[in-house]
Design goal:
Mean pLDDT: 88
Oligomer: single chain
Helix content: 25-40%
Order of helices and strands: EEEHEEEHHHEHEHEEH
Largest sheet: 6 strands, mixed
Shape: globular
Low-confidence stretches: 260-268
CATH class of the largest domain: Alpha Beta
Strand content: 15-25%
CATH architecture of the largest domain: 3-Layer(aba) Sandwich
Number of helices: 7
Length: 268
């Protein structure tokens, strides 16, 4: 566990996309945040509010038009090994086995020898319950198994920060709940600085140390909610009075920053 690095700070981050034949789309405007190191930071908001754009900026895949992003006080530019992303869509190459998918990145970059990458992949895949599936191909895995393989694919690089863009979207309800519990154990074991993007309130409360609420587009962080449910966290916490209180607080914040279809003002 790295206890000295991983703080991501953004100041006045803005991003606009040019749309052919239409007005430019402003995804983010003056978005300011401080994601603490070794915390599970959850960002949530409505569909189209700029969450995925923020995720891509945090991971270094796109650059903001304005503002600056720092990692532990240093400019954070480009997709480098200390920030890795798990995408909504699968990032597994279908022509490679699970083991080859996991080892490909560090071997190509030269950060691990092929032998060390193979040994490390076996450690991770065993930890993720995929030890018997090393030689399988992605099409032979369930949706939840693919997600676990992608976590191994990211963690073999020993990142300081992991960014996940709605990673459990599209899974059936049972698989999603199992992945939430699995991911929670993973975070509580490693303490890896995490930015987890979601539009699911229950998921946010169950996982987060802090929930960062985004406004409608153009997106910006409008509220931060401390989630003080104790860790290690069990699914039984979802039946507690404190969980219900946090849900009410988050709902009020979310609805307070959603524009109505009829009017261009926030609900009070």
């Amino acid at each position: 566990m790295n206890t000295t690095s991983g703080a991501l700070v953004g100041k006045n981050i803005s991003k606009t996309y040019a749309v052919k034949g239409r007005a430019d789309a402003v995804a983010l405007k003056d978005c300011t945040f401080h994601f603490e190191a070794n915390k599970l930071n959850v960002v949530m908001g409505t569909s189209g509010c700029g969450k995925s754009t923020l995720a891509y900026i945090l991971a270094g895949y796109i650059a903001p038009d304005e503002g600056n992003l720092t990692l532990d006080g240093q400019p954070a530019k480009g997709p480098i090994g200390n920030r890795l992303m798990v995408f909504q869509e699968t990032a597994l190459w279908p022509w490679m086995t699970v083991e080859d998918n996991v080892t490909f990145g560090p071997v190509v970059r030269g950060t691990l020898s092929r032998a060390r990458a193979k040994a490390r992949s076996h450690e991770l895949l065993d930890k993720f319950g995929l030890g018997d599936f090393k030689t399988k191909y992605p099409e032979q895995l369930s949706g939840g198994m693919k997600r676990r393989a992608e976590l191994a694919q990211a963690l073999i690089n020993s990142p300081d920060v992991m960014v996940l863009d709605e990673p459990f979207r599209g899974l059936d309800v049972m698989s999603r709940e199992l992945m939430q519990e699995y991911f929670l154990r993973l975070f509580e074991d490693t303490g890896l600085t995490t930015i987890f993007i979601t539009s699911e309130l229950e998921e946010a409360i169950f996982l987060a140390d802090r929930i960062y609420i985004m406004s409608d587009a153009p997106g910006r962080i409008v509220d931060v909610i401390e989630v003080d449910l104790p860790r290690p966290r069990e699914v039984s916490c979802l039946t507690t009075e404190r969980y219900r209180e946090l849900k009410e607080i988050a709902l009020k914040s979310l609805y307070g920053h959603i524009k109505t279809e009829e009017n261009d003002f926030a609900i009070s």
